[in-house]
Amino acid sequence: MLNQIKIVLCFTSHPGNIGAAARAMKTMGLSQLVLVSPKDFPSEEAMVRSSGALDILDNAKVVKTVEEAVEDCRLVIGTSSRNRTLPWPLIEPREMAQIIHEKPQSRPVAILFGRESVGLLNEELQLCNYHVNIPANPEYMSLNLASAVQIISYELRLKELMADSTQQQEIELKESELNATSEQVDGLYKHLEETMISTEFYDPDNPKLLSSRVRRLFAKSQLNQGEVNILRGFLSSIDKYIKRKTNV
């Protein structure tokens, strides 16, 4: 399970936090680190703060956007400590580990950590299936980035250790039954948006909360690849029908 989980640090300002996060990951057996547009990396400070977890840093993948970081993932979880305008499925770290453990069809998994100062932005959180909240002291919720990575990583390792790995067998699923990747769901969303514009159901100049609500619907549904194909096939049939009517 652990080797199918990505820790994604988004727009990190301080290289020391990257090194400390790599150390936290290695102590718990995680190895996949993805950095979205870090301000300073590679960095000597990151190497020092990693305390020997240099392999994590050496193998870290650096990308430009959050979308690129999660495009091949079937489950995306964003860390969040704030209430948002649009409610989203909110879980705690232990529940998160249980969900990942019970749903092998949802892997690979990305767990997103935001900026040190403001965390993840709303548009980044909308890419997630769940938001995970670390239940810190409400009177002092200032949790260091590396500490948050350590807590999340610990819960994942604890769940891995609790599982009887010698007897547990994960069922091989047909490709159509695998959860759709973030990239596939995003493709469905864009296709739906284009069709809604064509049918005048959606006005991009006056979107209100429709766009966010549709993304939340897809995130909550956790569509599999077969379901995405069905929906896109249905949308394609609508597109063809509109073209036929237009040409009449």
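Next protein, fold it too.
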Amino acid sequence: MPQNPLKKPFLSRIVFTLTVIFLLLPLLVLVLYSFNDGKNSWTHLSLRWYKILFERKPQLWGAFHHSIIVALVSGLFSTAIGTLMAIGLNWYRFKLKPYIRSVIFLALILPDIIVGLSLAILFSSWKMNLGLVNVILAHISFNIPFVTLMVLARLDEFDNSILEVASDLGANEWQRLTRVILPIASPGIISAFITAVTLSLEDFVITVFVGSVGSTTLPVAINNAIRKDPDSNVVYALSVLLISATVLLAVCVRRFLKYLVKR
């Protein structure tokens, strides 16, 4: 009797299930312990850590505020620069094009500790100690390659004959950019912006190297709280709030991208 080609093999379902459990189990444990009244061992359900988080941990909320500022500003600038780079690499033909692509890939594979150290040396040699500005500049620098490649991937699917039609209809270079290329590339641009914001929010290594007093971001504050704060379990409650916000944002962005593609 022939097998149904659409039926998933048993082994694939087992592997898929184990992978999902492996990914979600740590998050579920984190959520559970955020409601634990004890600190090092399980006692009973309580909102103790959420109460402490909102009432006695202003430094964490200050670091969260810094992270939001850094993520949004660096995301906007890196998305603008990376998008223009991607359009230039896709649209124009020049001798240095292969070398620029190689540099972009090199920036992606460099370890964070190397990037952070090099930026720290650069800022120190220029005598730059601008607090959050240093962190924002550092985040822009490591986000640009990600944005460029994501927008390039979208532009690679672009039908250049559309540009020829636009030129035949009298559109100049600026009109072709703003009315043809950017609208078509908009799903990739939005995805790149969300990726840049996410990478900025979670960055720890580079921020430690280039940050200073008064520019502490949330990952750095969480690390300090785990090592020094007697109420370190508040980071569990904070993490649950961040997970909830991330899931909500991901759902909204996915629906918005589907709307753009269908439109």
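About the second fold: The chain is about 75% helix and 0% strand.
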